[in-house]
Amino acid sequence: MACTSCSSGGGIPGGCQNNGNCSSGGCNKLEVYDWLANVSLPSGQKPYDIVEVRFKNSRKEFYKNIKEIALQAGDVVVVESSPGFDVGVVSVVGELARIQVAKKESNFKPNEARKIKGKAEQEHIDNWIKARSLEKEVMYKSRTLAVNLGLQMKISDVEYQADLSKATFYYTAEGRVDFRQLIRDMANEFKIRVEMKQIGSRQEASRLGGIGSCGRELCCSTWLTDFRSVSTSAARYQQLSLNPQKLAGQCGKLKCCLNYELDMYLDALKAFPKGELKLRTEKGTAMYVKTDVFKQQMWYAYDGGTGSTLVPLSPERVREILRLNKEGKKPVDLKEYIEVEKVVESGYENVDAQDSLTRFEHIFKNKKKKRPNNNRKGVGSNRSVEGNRSKPTVEAKVPENKPPQNKRRNNRRKKNPNNPNNEAK
């Protein structure tokens, strides 16, 4: 039932080609793994009565289980709404729900929370599926109404209530929009109660989902819940090129992943001298260009084109040159302070108790084999047969009165008068 509440292709996962559900959890945006499910409560302690319920896309709310219904993650429940009721899927129960409440809503009041009516019946589920089927067509019609009124807004998503009495329209806009006439037109067109909610670009990408430039699902639609501000200084600290096409995500804003490793870069840069300081040498003044955090190097270039190439220096060498400049001394050239790393070539080591990599080389060597001369009949060579056994050598006996081989060939030609070679000779 989880796939019917998402907008990733009408309830059918596009990746696994499954019909109805997805065992990998890819269709459930902001899926939560209950790592406290197998932990039993102390004796005498009642289970936590607040339950987190997930609705379409990434919308989640907390409800109170006053009837003490035995619920677990994945159950479809009917909850109170204003007006009427709604249908959702239980995402978190028990002690993990207590942690989620403290994390997301610090001012949450359990007495004012809406209640869970019970588990959904087949009638409720049929109305729920019918409401999901109407959302796409209603969204297109609402966009047409907004364009006709000339409103500078974009309606990105529509969420119907399970009892078909209310629909929530999510839109994005650069400024304030007067949509009072739009609400009247949509109420007359769709015969429902209309509610408008303005969301930001990041929230829009979170609801719609998608694939990022890294090849994975968007972080905002899978696990990221708090959207912190991202500035261009985060890219500068990480030595990234300030290219808007590469740094911007699908929402049009700077990528949230620029903040993931920012703290590590800030800690690493504390070991480097300030890049605004200049290095003075007899050859000229060197200006700071860039820093390679992983190689622990700072790159400098001479001002005014004195040196055409960049000079890599370690932070220790840079501090040493700065100390000499404070004492009024100038080194001759920065190239004297370049540290050359010695590359040690290590051979193959049999660490895994394997044989040598060259153990088959002697088999593939080309060995020149001597062909036996059939014209020469002499002493035969010893050949090993089946181990160390060898055939005895046999001496060929040549008759004493037999003429040489060449003379015998000439005699045969003389005897044959039809031989063409005789005429040539």
pLDDT < 50 stretches: 5-26, 378-390
Largest sheet strand order: 2-1-4-3-5
Give the radius of gyration: 42 Å
Q: In which range does the helix fraction lie?
A: 10-25%
Distance between the termini: 104 Å
| Main sheet makeup | 5 strands, antiparallel
Q: Beta-strand level of the residues, as a percent range?
A: 15-25%
Report mean pLDDT, rounded to a whole number. Answer: 80
Structural class call reads alpha+beta
Give the overall shape: extended
Overall number of strands: 12
Number of helices: 11
Order of helices and strands: EEEEHEHEEHEHHHHHEEEEHHH
Q: What can you see in these coordinates?
A:
By secondary structure, this protein is α+β, with helices and mostly antiparallel strands. Among the domains are: 32-120, no CATH class; 131-205, GMP Synthetase, Chain A, domain 3, CATH 3.30.300; 228-270, no CATH class; 279-337, no CATH class. The protein has eleven helices and twelve strands. The chain has helices at residues 95-104, 122-148, 180-190, 201-208, 219-222, 232-237, 244-247, 262-269, 315-326, 405-415, 420-424; strands at residues 50-54, 60-64, 76-80, 85-92, 116-119, 154-160, 166-172, 193-198, 279-280, 285-292, 297-302, 311-313. It has a five-stranded antiparallel β-sheet. A four-stranded antiparallel β-sheet has the order 9-10-11-12. Strand 3 and strand 4 form a beta hairpin. Helix 2 (122-148) crosses helix 3 (180-190). The model is unreliable at 5-26 and 378-390 (pLDDT under 50).
